[in-house]
Amino acid sequence: MKLIPIFVILVSLTAKANFKELSNEFLRENASVQSLIGNSLKADQGIKFVESSLAPKFGGGASFVDNNSDSANAVNFAAGKTTSVDLNFSKATSWGGVFSLNNSFEKVIQDPSRIIIFGGDPEIHQFKQTISFATSLTRNIFGQEFDLNLNSSILNAEYVDLLSQSSLNDLMMQFSQAYSRAVLSKELFDLQARALERAKKRLVLVKRRVSDGINLKADLYRAESAKVFQEEQLDQAKQELNKALFSLSSHLHREVLVSEIGTVKNITAAQEGIKNYSQSIKKEQPLIDSRKRFAENQELEKEKSARKMLPEMNFSVAYQTNDYDAESSNVFDKGNLGGDRNTLSVGLEFTYNFGRVSERASLTQAEINHNQALHQLSAAHENVKNRRLMLQENLRLSTNNIRKATRRVELSTSIINEYVKLFSLGRVTLDQVIQAEEDLINSERRLAQQVAANFTQFLELASLDYFLPDLVEGNF
Question: Which 3 state secondary structure label does DSSP give 208?
């Protein structure tokens, strides 16, 4: 007797494992799932793109010019061979400033005719170094524009991630429904197979009773017709099972065998396990949260457009040193930032677009987009609330119907068992036995359908408050 509960536990664990393993395989292998994951990864790169604007930049170049061209003047003042090397470094800050350090070295081999007239050394060197700082006094003052761009990219990444989670929930629901249909079709096929076996046994009994003269030959025809009908029903059930397995296989991109799916009785255990596990994790609302992030992002876009209405005013300051000398070592020693010869420059640049037609159009569009996002958020709240109430009520009714259907199966089983005994005694007709058989099959079908429907409705309700892959991957 101790083997019975152990067997039940093993069957239950196997059923949950079947659903869990196939679900995890779906999340790993399904092309649509991988596409959504890719969207989230691409959105994350948007944050790095904004942050990359603060990365230090290093650049430089070299050039050689041999100028011996003709000139309108008696002397070509630019004649000679010039070699230039530039090295530049810049670093933007999150608070709106940009620091730059520029280094420039130049070697000039002067044309002899130029030396004859102007004098000087045949070869001359120059080195200059410049340190500068520039910042915005309006749009990006204290890095406000940068902060808006960074926050916008973060919100966009969160929005895409939450939207992907919501879409993943939908895909997970589609897979769960396909799995539930496959389990239901398998159960209906098994029920129909058992019904056919009962019809065959009944035909053997009727044949014997007709041979003994107890039943009429018409009863034999009736029993044989009932058996053929059950064979037709079995073929139909097999077709439905094949279609359900094909649908499930399409989600996994491989052939799924009947042995890989559980039974209707066992998915109840999986449902109970998911329900218990859900109580230990935090609730989420991917659909609502994605709408929230979208509305917040549109509000930031509106702020960015509003800042573009401001005039551009940029401030800059630069300090430059240099030195000319025939010796290159001297120019590096005297031409750096510590040198005596220097230039200080301060600048203020102002730009204002009169009319600001494009800026106003951009701001108006951003305001409309923000209002639309707020309406979508409000509608999502209302739709989710109504959907939850509907699913809770339907789940309650479905649970009640499961209890009623279970009782009907028990009563139908008892009725057919009694009718079989009474038929052997000749106290009921064969039509009554066949009708009792049909009642049992219908009751069993109805119970299986109610359990499968209850399972999918439960997952649909859970998808409103949880990320389904987390529930499925959990240790339920």
Answer: helix
**Contacting residues for 86 by C-beta, under 8 A, at least 6 apart:** 60, 61, 62, 102, 103, 104, 105
Q: What is the pTM for the complete model shown?
A: 0.77
Domain residue spans in the chain?
12-47+149-297+366-473, 57-92+97-139+313-351
Mean pLDDT of the chain, nearest integer: 86
Checking 260-263 for CB contacts under 8 A at 24+ apart, the result is: 260/18, 260/22, 261/18, 261/22, 261/179, 261/182, 261/183, 261/186, 262/14, 262/15, 262/16, 262/18, 262/19, 262/183, 263/15, 263/183, 263/186, 263/187, 263/190
Name the DSSP letter for residue 120: -
B/e letters for 377-408, b = 16+ CB within 10 Å, e = fewer, are beebeeebeeeeeebeeebeebeebbeebeeb
CB burial readout 302-315, b (16+ within 10 A) else e? bbbbebbebeebbe
Rounded to an integer, what distance in angstroms lies between the CA atom of residue 229 and that of residue 307?
77
Task: For residue 155, count CB atoms less than 10 angstroms from its CB and return exposed for 0-12, middle for 13-18, buried for 19 or more.
Answer: buried
Task: Output phi, psi for 164, to 5 deg.
Answer: -65, -40
Q: How far apart are CA 304 and CA 207, in angstroms?
A: 88
Residues 6 or more apart in contact with residue 160 via CB below 8 angstroms: 39, 40, 42, 43
For 456-471, give one letter per residue: b (16+ CB within 10 A) or e. bbbbbbbbbebbbbeb
Q: Is 260 exposed, middle or buried (0-12, 13-18, 19+ CB in 10 A)?
A: middle
How far, in Å, CA of 260 to CA of 46, rounded?
A: 42
CATH number for the domain running over 12-47+149-297+366-473:
1.20.1600.10
At 2 the pLDDT is 37
DSSP per position, 302-362: HHHHHHTTSPEEEEEEEEEEEEEESSHHHHHHHSSTT-S-EEEEEEEEEE--TT-HHHHHH
The closest of 279, 238, 265, 255 to 22, measured between CA atoms, is 255
Cβ distance 458 to 275 under 8 Å? Answer: yes
Instruction: Enumerate residue ranges in the chain where pLDDT < 50.
Output: 1-16
Segment 331-385, tens digit of pLDDT: 888 888 888 888 999 999 998 888 778 888 989 999 999 999 999 999 999 999 9
| CB proximity list for 91: less than 8 A, separation 6 or greater | 54, 56, 57, 98, 99, 100
How many Å apart are CA 470 and CA 350, to the nearest integer?
54
